[in-house]
Amino acid sequence: MTAQNRLLLQSERAKRIREIAPRAKPELVSPPRASHFYCMSKRTRNIPAMMTQLTLSSWETIFHRSVMMAQGTCSAAEYQRMVMEKAAAMQASTMALMTGRGNAAVLAPYLVRSRANARRLRRG
């Protein structure tokens, strides 16, 4: 789908929304940019789903690092990474909490780093 076709579809959708909006409840009318694909590409902000993803990726990271420690292959850089990533996540999480961005924003730094670690350690 070309950019021109996409813009045409968005403008048609906006026209339909403006026609429906006067008689519909405001909470049922979605903004023109909230197409199906746009919503699919956004990260989830569902707290239980985020907690589940965090738990699973943390378990995977702990497993891989425990195996590395047991085999004696855990490098000094990996030990340093363990400490630094937690400090960075705590700093980002505290800023989100202080600015009042919501629970999902407070949890997001931990989730992003945990998933990145699991992916990196999975590759070897």
Write the layout of secondary structure elements.
Blueprint: H1 3-20, H2 36-41, H3 47-71, H4 76-98, H5 103-123
Task: Please sum up the structure shown.
The chain has 124 residues and is an all-alpha fold. It has helices at residues 3-20, 36-41, 47-71, 76-98, 103-123.
What does this structure look like?
This protein is mostly helical. The longest helix has 25 residues, at 47-71. It is elongated. α3 (47-71) runs parallel beside α5 (103-123) and α4 (76-98) packs antiparallel against α5 (103-123). Residues 34-41 have low confidence and may be disordered. It has 2 domains: 3-41; 47-123, no CATH class. The protein has 5 helices and no strands. The chain has helices at 3-20, 36-41, 47-71, 76-98, 103-123.
